[in-house]
Structure formats: structure tokens, C-alpha cells
Write a structure and sequence with these properties.
By secondary structure, this protein is α+β, with helices and mostly antiparallel strands. The chain has a five-stranded antiparallel beta sheet with strand order 2-1-5-4-3, sandwiched between helices. A five-stranded antiparallel beta sheet has the order 11-10-14-13-12. Strands 16-18-19-21-20 form a five-stranded mixed beta sheet, covered by helices on one side. Helix 1 packs across helix 10, helix 15 packs parallel to helix 16 and helix 16 packs antiparallel against helix 17. The protein starts with a helix and ends in a 12-residue tail after the last strand. 27% of the residues are buried. The C terminus is likely disordered.
Length: 704
């Protein structure tokens, strides 16, 4: 029980470590998000400050231009018209006033778009401090007043500058009343969302109308309550010093300032005048969105942790319950492996045995076949009926196979056909066929049909029988030649002696001549037997084929003419040569051509041809193919496999001994060659001899 629980405990520890790591990375990523937010807010603030600075600089330039106009020579009426044109051109100007050196008002122009009460709203006493400050600075220096006391919007400011020293009225001061709210419009965009508040201080350090009321109230109470808001105090200190940067206010202080229960990112920068004065600006943005996102992520992680923990507990219970079945499963796996091994071994055995095996389903359709049988059947016979496996077979043959399968499946016993001559494939052959019924619970492999091809075995048996006959002929030849040869010689001699004594005209002379002819025939047979029994390993040498073939043609030309046959000789190359004993090779060609002549009627054709055998060249120098063809009567199929047997002949009695083709086959095999026969009645016969080719010059070849 300990082993299944241990992995669960390890998984729980791993899960705890993962959760701790995720929280750590979340905290680190949150700080990175806060820093990124501060950078973005700082960039937005700097962009807005540049816009405000450009607007203020434009207003200052217009004020300096007004001073330069008043410094030019001209009448009071001309100066009034010029100031009127400037007032109408500068949209942010509400009024233009000129004060003399004695502080008395000399000119007052009010924007027609402003209320008529503007004329009397601000008196000279209200602007006296600003005029005095402008007179104390050099000409061109622009001073700004604090918010005018009677301005309802809180944005009306007085900008003043002294006239140049070379003016007609040197020491005079021109004052413009400016609605500063449009100039600070870019700052309003920074506080467009509810999570951001502005803190804007004027030149004199007092909060402007853009400042959020809560921040303005807290800022005014910093001298008394500054210890409660250290973050705002540090921010105010940086603003008064004209600094730029970012500052983070903690959650508790943000709640006191009315900015929500999250940290606040404060970005600040001054709006500077050319004369060195500045309007400090700060934006305070809450990180409540980041905090909400973090809480949601923690909640989801907690829920996931609970689900994973539940899964692990369930998995632990499952492991404990499954542990008791592990051994049984392992045993089943081992058993399955053994079965798979046996199946693989069986498949390999079936694929590599020479016997054909065909599997039939319960519906008598082919479900599988081993390699030996698949090579002889058409492609894609799986799923087809039994007739598809043997398309060359006749209907009675297929019926015998189906009856055999039916009998085997009916009584559940193996049924067989032994040594049956069946034409299952392209050529007839002898087969053992077995129908093996299997378990009825396996419908895919319900019955096996095992097909043993006995054709090669029968051929080997024929070759063995022929070899035994040849050995018997060899033994008989020695005995017959010794026991019969001498008496026959004596009888022949006596018959010739009596024939000479009686004379050619004597009535018994013909009978004595017949005795001599028959004794000569027996002697020739004995000589062939002796030659057959005494045949020794050939002393092979390079024999050119072309001259030898033409010499055979010359030897047999008269015989062909006598029988009115056409004898053709064709050699593919003049350089073609075989490794053979010349006399024995000539004997082979003469015997084959004479047999072909014997098979033809008058007007027939016999053809002797020779070429390199490109289809079958197992030796180092290849094989030479020699074909002897005729268009004679042919050989019956039942006699094809007997023509090379000793004493077998299809000729009439007294016209052949049956040893000619036996000698030919023996000589060919003795030289390491092969002989093949292809014949059919009324079609003629072709005898093919594959003879080892002669070695190239400088090399030797020995035939054993």
C-alpha cells in the first residue's frame, strides 16, 4: 500500500511547488506590469506637457509682439487699431490693457466675444501686483499672475511684459488677460478615465482648476496633515523642485486619497516658460485593473489547484485499487507477449516452408496465404472465393478441392488427396492436398488448405531411377562385352568361312549373310555399351563452335539429301567456343541431328543453332546454348521424361537401340552442362544443351 501512496504524495508536493512558483512569477510579472504602466503614463504626460508648453510659448510670443507694436512710433489711435487686430487674432486673449509708468491705465480693449461686464470686472488695483512685477523685469520678460480673484472659471490669468527701452513710452506695461483653460486642454485627456486624477499647480504653487478636488484639498493640508500622506508629500516636493519622473503611492495612502484600494502610479513633469517659470503637472493612476486581474488569476489558480488536488486524490484511490490487479495484468501481458512471439514464429515458419498454405474463412473465402503459395497465385486474392486462387484449374479440379474442404469441416477430421495429378497452375503436376479444420470460434481462419507440390520430388525420383539404370547398364555392359563378345566373334568368323566355301551363288549364302549382319548389329550394340561404361572424365579444351558445327553439317549432308530434308546451321559469333572434348562434343551434335532427321518426314527441316546463353550464366565464363530443332512428329507427353533412359526408343524395332540420347545426356553432364527437351505431337521437338563456354585466352578450365 505504501508504493501507490508515495507517488500521490510526491505529486502533491510538486503541485505545491508549482503553485508557489506561479505566485512568485505572478508577483514579479505584476511589478513588471506596474513599471511598464509607469513608463507609458510618463510618455503620455511628457507628450501632453510638450503640447501645453507650445501653446504657452505661442501666447508669450503674441504678448511680446504686442509690446513691439506699442514701441513703434504712431498715434494712440493707430496703436488701438493694432491692438484690436491682435486681440481678435489671438483667440485665447480676452482683453489687452496698457499701464503707463505712473501705474495708470491708458488703454483697455475687451474681446467682443466676452461679456460686456469684462470692462469693469477687473480694476487696476487687481492687476497692480502683476504690473509691478513686469516693470521690475527687463523688457520682453513675461510674468504671470495668480488666478484673478473675481474670475468665475479659475482659469483667467494676466500675462504682462514691459515695453522696450527705445519705445516712446518707455517703462509702460502691456497686460493681456488669457483664458488658460484651452492651453491646458492636452492635460485633460490624461484624466479621461475614472482611474486617473490630475494635480496641476500654477506658477505660484497653488492647485489649478484641473486638479481633482480631493487632491487639491489634500495638497492644501500638507502642512498640517502631511505625515498621513507621505507619498503625496514626496510628490509635492518633487513638483515644487521642478523635477520629472515617477513615484508609487502605497495602497493605504491611496485609499486615504480616495484613489481606490490599489497602488497608485504618479508621473510628474513641469510645463516650463521661456522665462524659467514652470507649472508643475502630475497624473495619479490607480493600478486597480492590475490588482483585479491578479486576483482573478489567483482565484482561477486556486480553483485549478483544488481540482488538481481532487484529481490526485481520486487518482490515488484508483492507484490503490488498481495495485491489486497489477500482477494479473503483468501476467496477462507476459502471456500476450508469448502468444505474439508464437504467432510471429508461426508466421515466419509458414512463410519459409516450401509447402503452400491457404487459409479459408467460414464462408469459404480466402483470408490469408503464405509466401510459397502467394508467389504462384494472382495478386489480391484475399477475400475472394477458392476459384480465384487457381484461375488455370479446370472446374472438376476446383470441385474436388471444395468437396475435400467440405468433408473436412463436416466431420472435423483432416482429409487428404495423395499424389494426385492436378493442373492447379500453368503446368500439370502431382500434389498432396490436405484440408485441415480449425476451431469453429475463429471465423477468419476456419480451414487450412495445405498443398504439397510433388513435381520436383518426382523429377528427383526419376533422376535417381535413371542414375540407377545407368549404373546397372555400366555393370551389365562389362559382363556382356566379356561373356558374349568372344563367342559372337567366333560365330561370325565361321559364318564368313562357310559363305566363302559355298560361294555367292549357293542357296544358303543369303542366310549366312544375314547371320553376319545380325552378328555385326549385336557387336555394335556391345560396342556402345562398352563405350558407355568406359566413359571417363572429359579433358576439356577450347573447341570453336563454328567450324565444328559446319563439319557436322558436311558429315550429315548426304544423309539429309537422301531423306530430302533441309539442314540449317547457325552460329551467332565466329568467336564462340565451348570447353569440351572435341570428339565427344561432335558425337553429341551428330546424335542430336540424326535423331531430329529420324523424326522428320520428307520435306522437313532440321536446324542447328548456337549462341551465348544470357539468361542463365552461373559460371565464371557463362554458358553456350546449343539448340537442335525439327518440325517432325514430336514426342507424346507420357514419353518426354523417358527419352534419356537406357534402351528406351520410339523407333521401329531394329532401327534403334535406345542408347543414343542416353550417351548424349551422359556426355553433357560429364562436361558440367545441362540438357532440356521441349516437344509436343505434330509440333516438333527442340533439344537445348547448355554447355560451359571456353575460358578466355591465358586461363584454364577443368571439367570433372
Amino acid at each position: 500500500m505504501r508504493l501507490p501512496v508515495l507517488p500521490v504524495l510526491l505529486l502533491c508536493l510538486m503541485l505545491s511547488g508549482i503553485i508557489a512558483g506561479v505566485l512568485h512569477f505572478m508577483q514579479r510579472d505584476r511589478q513588471a506590469l506596474v513599471d511598464q504602466m509607469a513608463r507609458e503614463r510618463q510618455a503620455q504626460l511628457l507628450e501632453a506637457v510638450r503640447g501645453v508648453s507650445a501653446a504657452l510659448e505661442s501666447a508669450e510670443e503674441d504678448l511680446r509682439f504686442a509690446g513691439e507694436l506699442l514701441a513703434q512710433p504712431g498715434t494712440a489711435e493707430e496703436h488701438r487699431r493694432e491692438m484690436r487686430a491682435l486681440l481678435e487674432a489671438a483667440g485665447q486673449y480676452k482683453a489687452i490693457l496698457v499701464f503707463g509708468t505712473d501705474g495708470q491705465e491708458r488703454l483697455r480693449l475687451v474681446d467682443r466675444r466676452s461679456a460686456a461686464a469684462m470692462t469693469h470686472q477687473f480694476t487696476a488695483e487687481d492687476l497692480a501686483l502683476t504690473v509691478a512685477q513686469a516693470r521690475s523685469h527687463p523688457p520682453g520678460h513675461v510674468v504671470s499672475s495668480p488666478p484673478l480673484p473675481r474670475a468665475q472659471s479659475g482659469w483667467l490669468r494676466a500675462f504682462a511684459t514691459a515695453l522696450p527701452e527705445d519705445a516712446q513710452d518707455s517703462g509702460a506695461v502691456v497686460v493681456v488677460l488669457v483664458d488658460a483653460e484651452p492651453l491646458f486642454a492636452p492635460l485633460k485627456l490624461l484624466a479621461s478615465d475614472s482611474e486617473t486624477q490630475l494635480l496641476v499647480l500654477g506658477v505660484h504653487g497653488t492647485p489649478t482648476a484641473l486638479t481633482h478636488p480631493n487632491l487639491a484639498d489634500r495638497y492644501r493640508r500638507l502642512d498640517t496633515d502631511g505625515h498621513q500622506t507621505p507619498g503625496l508629500t514626496a510628490l509635492a516636493r518633487a513638483l515644487r523642485a521642478g523635477e520629472s519622473g515617477t513615484h508609487v503611492i502605497e495602497r493605504k495612502e491611496a485609499a486615504r486619497l480616495g484613489l481606490g484600494d490599489s497602488e497608485v502610479v504618479a508621473t510628474f513633469s513641469p510645463v516650463r516658460f521661456k522665462n524659467g517659470a514652470a507649472w508643475p503637472v502630475a497624473t495619479l493612476a490607480s493600478t486597480r485593473v492590475l490588482r483585479t486581474h491578479e486576483r482573478g488569476l489567483v482565484l482561477r489558480l486556486s480553483l485549478a489547484a483544488v481540482l488538481v488536488s481532487g484529481f490526485l486524490i481520486a487518482f490515488g484511490v484508483y492507484v490503490v485499487l488498481a495495485h491489486s490487479r497489477a500482477e494479473a495484468l503483468r501476467e496477462s501481458q507476459l502471456h500476450a507477449q508469448r502468444l505474439a512471439h508464437l504467432h510471429d514464429k508461426t508466421q515466419k515458419i509458414l512463410d519459409n516452408i516450401p509447402t503452400g498454405v491457404l487459409a479459408l474463412s467460414s464462408s469459404r473465402h480466402i483470408s490469408a496465404a503464405n509466401r510459397a503459395l502467394s508467389a504462384r497465385m494472382p495478386a489480391e486474392v484475399v477475400g475472394q472465393p477458392l476459384t480465384a486462387a487457381f484461375p488455370q484449374a479446370q472446374a472438376p479440379v476446383i470441385q474436388r478441392l471444395e468437396d475435400l474442404v467440405h468433408a473436412a469441416t463436416s466431420d472435423g477430421r483432416v482429409r487428404s488427396l495423395h499424389g494426385e495429378p492436378l493442373c492447379l497452375f500453368e503446368e500439370p503436376g502431382q500434389y498432396n492436398v490436405h484440408a485441415v479444420p480449425l476451431e469453429p470460434n475463429t471465423p477468419e481462419v476456419h480451414t487450412l488448405v495445405v498443398i504439397e507440390d510433388l513435381s520436383s520430388l518426382r523429377a528427383l525420383e526419376g533422376q535417381l531411377l535413371r542414375a540407377e539404370k545407368l549404373a546397372t547398364v555400366g555393370v551389365l555392359a562389362a559382363g556382356i562385352a566379356h561373356e558374349i563378345g568372344t563367342p559372337l566373334g567366333i560365330v561370325r568368323g565361321r559364318a564368313e568361312y562357310v559363305q566363302e566355301k559355298l560361294g555367292r551363288e549357293h542357296p544358303q549364302a543369303a542366310g549366312l549373310g544375314t547371320i553376319v549382319e545380325q552378328i555385326d548389329r549385336v557387336s555394335r550394340t556391345l560396342r556402345q555399351l562398352l563405350d558407355f561404361s568406359r566413359l571417363q572424365p572429359a579433358d576439356a579444351q577450347a573447341v570453336p563452335l563454328e567450324p565444328l558445327a559446319h563439319s557436322v553439317r558436311e558429315l550429315l549432308w548426304m544423309e539429309a539429301e537422301r531423306r530430302r530434308l533441309k539442314l540449317e546451321v547457325t552460329v551467332a559469333s565466329p568467336m564462340l567456343a565451348v570447353a569440351a572434348d572435341p570428339d565427344q562434343f561432335q558425337q553429341v551434335l551428330i546424335n542430336l541431328v540424326l535423331n531430329a532427321c529420324d523424326a522428320c518426314e520428307a520435306g522437313g527441316r532440321v536446324r542447328l543453332s548456337a549462341s551465348m546463353d544470357t539468361a542463365d550464366a552461373p559460371g565464371a565464363w557463362g554458358m553456350v546454348r546449343v539448340d537442335v530443332e525439327d518440325n517432325g512428329c514430336g514426342i507424346a507427353p507420357r514419353h518426354v521424361h523417358q527419352v534419356f533412359d537406357p534402351f528406351f526408343t520410339t523407333k521401329k524395332r531394329g532401327q534403334g537401340t535406345g542408347l543414343g540420347l542416353t550417351m548424349v545426356a551422359h556426355i553433357v553432364r560429364n562436361h558440367g552442362g545441362r540438357i532440356e527437351l521441349d516437344s509436343a505431337p505434330e509440333r516438333g521437338t527442340r533439344v537445348t544443351v547448355r554447355w560451359p563456354a571456353a575460358a578466355p585466352a591465358g586461363e584454364e578450365r577443368h571439367v570433372v
